[in-house]
Amino acid sequence: xxxxxxxxxxxxxxxxxxxxxxxxxxxxxxxxxxxxxxxxxxxxxxxxxxxxxxxxxxxxxxxxxxxxxxxxxxxxxxxxxxxxxxxxxxxxxxxxxxxxxxxxxxxxxxxxxxxxxxxxxxxxxxxxxxxxxxxxxxxxxxxxxxxxxxxxxxxxxxxxxxxxxxxxxxxxxxxxxxxxxxxxxxxxxxxxxxxxxxxxxxxxxxxxxxxxxxxxxxxxxxxxxxxxxxxxxxxxxxxxxxxxxxxxxxxxxxxxxxxxxxxxxxxxxxxxxxxxxxxxxxxxxxxxxxxxxxxxxxxxxxxxxxxxxxxxxxxxxxxxxxxxxxxxxxxxxxxxxxxxxxxx
Length: 344
Known about the structure:
Elements: H1 10-17, H2 22-30, E1 35-38, H3 45-59, E2 65-69, H4 74-82, E3 86-89, H5 95-99, E4 106-109, H6 121-138, E5 143-149, E6 156-157, H7 173-193, E7 197-202, E8 205-206, H8 212-222, E9 225-227, E10 232-233, E11 236-237, H9 238-247, E12 257-261, E13 267-268, H10 269-280, E14 285-287, E15 293-294, H11 300-306, H12 313-325
Helix pairs in contact: 2-3, 2-9, 3-9, 6-7, 8-10, 8-12, 10-12
């Protein structure tokens, strides 16, 4: 992929987000059968499904790519169909609807609840632990790649380089606890039914319309104060997250394989905002001081398996600044990465 200096519009952005690497094309060429994407209408689902479609076509592999969601915004469904992705409207908490989904050998599980979890704890647990059980029973004979989150680790020393897959979970707050519950449900069914699974602990993917860098850049641009207490973070270009996610079909196992998915850099909030300030012509405003711990993951194992991301943090930062400087749209969905109490 030849990297552009700037990304001009949504069409170019979506094309880059869904551009498969040669390795993704090889993975999808080896993978037998159709692919279903559960929760396709979320932030990552559309570009991930489209990458799977493009990679399958480039590999010369005939398969259905099926996107499943409620599709409360009909535009998502129309756009997916335009790119050759079949769609099924489904309330994923409806067990009967789950059972009526087509039997396919490959499942991407993107469903879950984070934002709004505080005050809706029971729904959060239903989405994050009950739904995986329904999916595991329905797709017991399938290969499953399922999203989890680095929040299951809790806060680790900022100097540690981030939590590794071997770190014991220490979730903070009900959202993170329910996400660990999701992992345990997948693990249980993988062990008892023999279903091969990969669990992806992701934090944080960055499109130019959302992500930690977008949150910080908007605050710098608006002159809003930036809380320094969560003093550092990881991030990863969503296009790279999509590519690595699809390549995880080469690394499924029973019991499940677990993989941190994020960028290799541990980024300082203060230094990132100062760089954004230079690019945006604004002086950042800070509040508080850096705590000795942060939510960080070590992506060393992903680097060993997949190589380094195509897009570096520096490139991504420049893209975000350029996007906002030219008035590019955002989703207005903050990551709340600075939350240290687990409440989202």
